[in-house]
Amino acid sequence: MSRLALSDEDKQARDWFVGTTQSLGCKVDVDAMGNIYATRPGKKPGPPTCAGSHLDTQPTGGHALLTAAKLILHSHRLATVYGGCLASTGVLELKPGSPNTVPGYVKFSLDIRSEEDKRLLQFEEQLKVDFEKISQGADLGGLNAGIVRGNGCKVDWTLDSPSKAVRFNEECIQCVVDSAGELFGEDAAQLTQKMISGADCANGAQVLMGAVLRYDGLRAARNW
């Protein structure tokens, strides 16, 4: 049901309420804000007992946001299981987008990667199978722990832009490793992870510069 305030459906409900309460003997008043008061005469004099509510509704809601959260979490877990795979979500679209309504429609991006095309295809196919199970309430890996199971929902999978795995030049990789090792020694691995995340751009630039100079040296030695 979706009956938003000031919509045609809202007007129909208000007209119905006025007609129904009048037929039951109520006196109907409407204030400047559009609030409707239906007063039914009592058997005894004195202050009336009042009850109030609203005739409009929030936009149509659902349970798909919780399912989407499970799907995203499961994709990360499964990427770890497959080894050499990565999964990330950068776009999340929710409808109807009302603060008090659980979204009934969720669209999210899922970027999956692997060093090997075969493994990536296996990972993708397993995700499709698991997503269908999760959308119907299956408890994969304890995703339903501590929560109430929903009624299930439909999952559509659309492939956006497939791309085959690209292997980086081993010498270029080694130049980066050597550059980081020269600058940071035993802490190179930990600090490099911070650079990748964007938390340490200055040192990242130093490592990149060192790697470029090293590779340039290799090219000069070989007369490339």
String of helices and strands:
HEEHEEEEHHHH
Structural class: mainly alpha
What share of the residues lie within helices?
40-55%
Low-confidence stretches: none
What overall geometry do the principal axes of the alpha carbons give? elongated
Oligomer: single chain
Overall radius of gyration: 30 Å
Quote the beta fraction.
Answer: 5-15%
Terminal residue distance: 70 Å
**In order across it, which strands form the biggest sheet?**
1-2
* Total of DSSP H or I helical runs spanning 4+ residues: 6
Q: What is the overall pLDDT average?
A: 87
Largest sheet: 2 strands, antiparallel
Number of strands: 6
In short:
The protein has about 220 residues and is mainly α. The chain has helices at about 10-25, 65-80, 115-135, 170-185, 190-195, 200-220, and strands at about 25-30, 35-40, 85-90, 90-95, 105-110, 110-115.
Provide an overview of this structure:
There is one protein chain. The protein has 6 helices and 6 strands. Strand 1 and strand 2 form a beta hairpin. Helix 4 crosses helix 5. The mean pLDDT is 87.
